[in-house]
Amino acid sequence: MKHFISVHDVTNVNDMVQLAMHYKQHPFIDQHLGANKRIGLLFLNPSLRTRLSTQIAASNLGMEAIVFNIDKDGWALEFEEGAIMSGHTVEHIKDAAPILGQYFDILCIRAFPALQNKQDDYSEQVMKAFMQYAAVPIVSLESATLHPLQSLTDVLTIKEHWHKPTKPKVVLTWAPHIKALPQCVANSFSQWMTHWGEAEFVIAHPEDYALDATFTKSATITHHQDEALQNADFVYVKNWSTYHDYGKIYSNDPSWMLTEQKLQLTNQAKVMHCLPVRRNIELSDEILDSNASLVNTQAGNRVWAAQAVLSTILKTL
Ligand code: CP
C-alpha cells in the first residue's frame, strides 16, 4: 500500500480488519516497525479522535509523531497551478510538500471540503497535491469526499459485533443537523460497505439528499426511514448536506432523528455514529446512553484501524 486515501488502496478489507483486531489484542507487538521513522499529522481542520488515535497508533508502532495545525500555525497554502500569488496565500503546495516529504516518512492530512464548489471538492485537489509533490506515502485523516480510517473502523466494529453466518442488515440513515456538513463519512461508509460486500446495505435519506452514485453502487436506497429500519442489525446515523445542489440544507425534519421508538422496528440493532454528535438533534440521549450505542467502541477502534494502516505502509518503506 503506497497511500491510504480510499478503500481502493486496500488489497483485502477482511485482512486489514484482521490486522486491526490483532493489534487490539497485541498493541506493542510491532514496536520495531516504526523505529527511526517519523510521521507528520497535518490538520487543516479540527479533530479529537482522528488526531489522538493516529498519534497513539504511531506510538504503538515505535514512530515519532509530530502534529502540525497547518491551518493555524503554517503559512496559507496555494493549490492552484500557475496561480499569481497576490492574495492571502503565502506558500505554494509545490514548495511546501517536498519539504514536508523530507522531514517525514509518512504524511497524514486532514482537509475538509469548503462545500462551495462541488467540482473543486470532488477533485480532491488538496490530497492529490500532497500525493504529487511530497514523495512519501500519504494517509487521509478525512479528505473533501472520504474518511477511510473511520470506515475501516466501522467495518471492524460491525465484524466484532456480528457472530451469525448470515449477512447483517446495515442501514445508513440520514439525520438532521443545524449546519451543512460534508458527505465524507456517508460516502466513505457506503464505499466500504459496498466494496466489502458482507452486509445487506441500505441507505435511507430524505428526497434531494442522494449521495454521489460513485459511492453507493449496489446499495438499496429509500426515502422511507421506517421501511429501512425493519429488521436492521446495525444502524449508522449521520447527517450530510445535499450533493446535487451542492452543500445545502434542504431538510431539518426532526422526525428523522433516531429514537428508542424507531429502534423497536429493528432486530435489536446496534447504533453507530462517527462522532462528534449533536445530542437530541442527530441522535437522542436515550439511544446514545443505552446499551444499543456502539459509538464509544467505534472511537476506541480508531487506534487499531490506524495502526493496521500505518504498519502496512511501514512494511513497504
Ligand atoms: N470521527 C472523527 O473523525 O472524529 P474527529 O473529527 O474528532 O477526528
Description:
It comes from Ferruginibacter yonginensis. Belongs to the aspartate/ornithine carbamoyltransferase superfamily. SOTCase family. Residues 201-312 form the Aspartate/ornithine carbamoyltransferase Asp/Orn-binding domain. InterPro entries: ArgF'-like (IPR043696), Asp/Orn_carbamoyltranf_P-bd (IPR006132), Asp/Orn_carbamoylTrfase (IPR006130), Asp/Orn_carbamoylTrfase_sf (IPR036901), Asp_carbamoyltransf_Asp/Orn-bd (IPR006131). This protein is an alpha/beta fold. Helices cover 36% and strands 14% of the residues. α2 (49-60) links the parallel β1 (38-43) and β2 (64-68). α4 packs across α6 (125-134). The chain is globular. The N and C termini lie close together (10 Å). The protein binds phosphoric acid mono(formamide)ester (CP). Phosphoric acid mono(formamide)ester binds next to α2.
What is the topological layout?
Blueprint: H1 13-25, E1 38-43, H2 49-60, E2 64-68, H3 70-73, E3 77-78, E4 91-92, H4 93-103, E5 106-110, H5 118-122, H6 125-134, E6 138-140, H7 148-160, E7 169-174, H8 184-196, E8 200-204, E9 220-222, H9 225-229, E10 234-238, H10 260-263, E11 270-272, H11 285-288, H12 295-314
Parallel strand pairs: 1-2, 1-5, 3-4, 5-6, 7-8, 7-10, 8-9, 10-11
Helix pairs in contact: 1-7, 1-12, 2-12, 4-6, 7-8, 7-12
Bound molecules: phosphoric acid mono(formamide)ester.
Identify the notable features of this structure and list them briefly.
alpha/beta; globular; 11 strands; binds phosphoric acid mono(formamide)ester; 12 helices; 4-stranded parallel beta sheet; Rossmann fold; about 325 residues
